[in-house]
What we know:
By secondary structure, the chain is an alpha/beta fold. It contains ten helices and ten strands.
Amino acid sequence: MIKIKDIEKSFGEKVVLKGITSTFHRGKTNLIIGRSGAGKTVLLKILVGLFQPNKGEVWYDDQSFFQLSKKEARQLRMKIGMLFQGGALFDSWNVEENIRFPLDMYTEMSYTEKRERVKEVLKKVELTGVENKYPSELSGGMQKRVGIARAIVLNPQYLFCDEPNSGLDPKTAIVIDQLILDITQQYDITTVINTHDMNSVMEIGDNILLLKDGCVAWQGNKDEILTSEDPTIIEFIFASPFLKRLRKKALGL
């Protein structure tokens, strides 16, 4: 579980986040949504320690993130997996080398043990046998799955995904969503996803945080969204005719 309390962040005179308080639950897919400029990416970067807030607290279970020593912070980072937008794979490294990177950085496993672990996570993301391929030889969806494999290779307790469906066709995006959901539930991970994808919201939104102008505009789950009377939710979520019909069906209209 991750708890954030009264998070504020400014860049010069520009206030980006204003008193954000929320809880991201273990074993759940926790989604951060909102329009461009709402503060989603800044909040995600604060959660993983890339930005320091001007005010507020981030708690990883019973640990106050910004009060950890360097040693404690390193130990916590070993429990964090990150799926970057676009996959962020090293083009000059093959799949095995990309996935093995966190193992090389944080463990003292033997080379044989590392190779076995790479094979395990590739099997989990249904990419057995691609160890020697390079990112340029893979489709966008396959690259995202390699990114997921790398993110979970250290058996993280916390998984962060930045726009995991960016650049993917709808069918592949559904596959990636389901894979993230399966991993979250199977390994009881606290997963936080920054997304614009409304299909992800409606399919895997166990816990949803909607930001608007740097503030929390709404919190709830995918079922509550369908029947919400909140004008911010109606304006943001139900812009498309398909989602409007889905809402009417849920309301029995």
